[in-house]
Every structure is written in structure tokens, then in C-alpha cells.
Design a protein that fits this description.
This protein is of the alpha+beta class and about 180 residues long. It has a single domain, classed as Alpha-Beta Plaits (2-Layer Sandwich), CATH 3.30.70. The protein has 5 helices and 8 strands; from the N terminus they run E-H-E-E-E-H-E-E-E-H-H-H-E. The protein is globular and about 45 Å long.
Length: about 180
């Protein structure tokens, strides 16, 4: 068996959404970025911070959100496991769905591919199945990648943003 040279390992281009609505939200997100970089994940571009109400329960604290473009040699399963380690290190506790959290990192896009598989107790679907309805993903993604297209249906990001509800368009604030 011939051992693969490290230079032959493909580079993956991905987009991650990072959010926090507990504790020092900006610090949580910045720490997540630092931990990603320590895991040999190169951040190529980073959006501004965006403030949005928690969903579906707007009584929860507001979220700070960003989207980053990354380059990594990790395969998607290894990237996912690294993300889960970072969320846990930042104090994320598995709780009721959509409950407040110190850190939430979602894989939005991985090499423009469609993937759907089970990894342990998690089901991973990429592109993220609800991203096209989320202002806190689309606005920061547009900021860093104006020509991005949805891998599943090839819809450009501007068209996706135009389909957002009027409330989604008015409740997001760049900070």
C-alpha cells in the first residue's frame, strides 16, 4: 500500500455559521474561531457580527452570529467532530432544541456538495437544511460570498434573501 503524501490530501472549502446567545457572546464566537484555527482549520474570510432575536422563542436572549469561510484538509466527518468538541469546550450543553447556548456551529456548505449521513447519534445534512430560511446565515454569508449559490438547487444567495419574510428582513442588525 502506498502512503498518500500530505500534499495529495484534498483541500475542502466550507462555510460555517457560528452563533451564541449566552454569556459573553462575542468572546464565545471569537474563542470558537481561535479553536478552529488551532485545529488546523484556516479561516479565509469572516463576516461582521449580526444580532438577531432567538427563534422560535423570542423571550430567550438575542443571538450574535457570524459566517466564516474556511479551508481544511479534514473530511466532513472529522470537521463535524471537531466542531462538536469546540461547542462542548465552550460550555454547550445538549438541551431542548433551540434552547439558549454558549456556542452553536453549523456546517452550511462543504465544497458545494449535497451530503446526508448519520454520524454517531447525529444526522448531518449539508447544505444545512434550514439555512435558506435563516437571515442570520444568509446576510453574513452574502457579506463574504456575494456569488454563493445553494448547492442543492443552484439558487443564488440574493434570490434566497429576497424570499425571506418581511420580519426576517427587519429583525437582523449588523453590529
Amino acid at each position: 500500500m502506498i502512503k498518500q503524501d500530505i500534499s495529495e490530501i484534498p483541500v475542502n472549502i466550507c462555510y460555517l455559521a457560528i452563533g451564541s446567545n449566552l454569556g459573553n457572546k462575542v468572546q464565545n464566537i471569537n474563542t470558537a474561531k481561535t479553536l478552529l484555527e488551532k485545529a488546523s482549520i484556516k479561516i479565509l474570510n469572516c463576516s461582521s457580527f449580526y444580532l438577531t432575536p432567538a427563534w422560535p422563542n423570542e423571550k430567550y436572549p438575542d443571538f450574535n452570529n457570524i459566517v466564516i469561510k474556511i479551508k481544511t484538509r479534514l473530511k466532513i466527518d472529522a470537521l463535524f467532530l471537531q466542531i462538536k468538541k469546540i461547542e462542548k469546550r465552550l460550555g454547550r450543553i445538549k438541551n431542548i432544541k433551540n434552547s439558549p447556548r454558549t456556542c452553536d456551529i453549523d456546517i452550511i456548505d462543504f465544497n458545494g456538495k449535497n451530503m446526508n449521513f448519520v454520524l454517531g447519534s447525529h444526522r448531518l445534512i449539508v447544505p444545512h437544511p434550514r439555512m435558506e430560511n435563516r437571515n442570520f446565515v444568509l446576510f453574513p454569508l452574502y457579506e463574504i460570498e456575494k456569488n454563493w449559490k445553494h448547492p442543492l438547487n443552484n439558487t443564488n444567495i440574493i434570490d434566497l434573501m429576497c424570499k425571506l419574510s418581511p420580519k426576517s428582513l427587519t429583525t437582523i442588525k449588523q453590529i
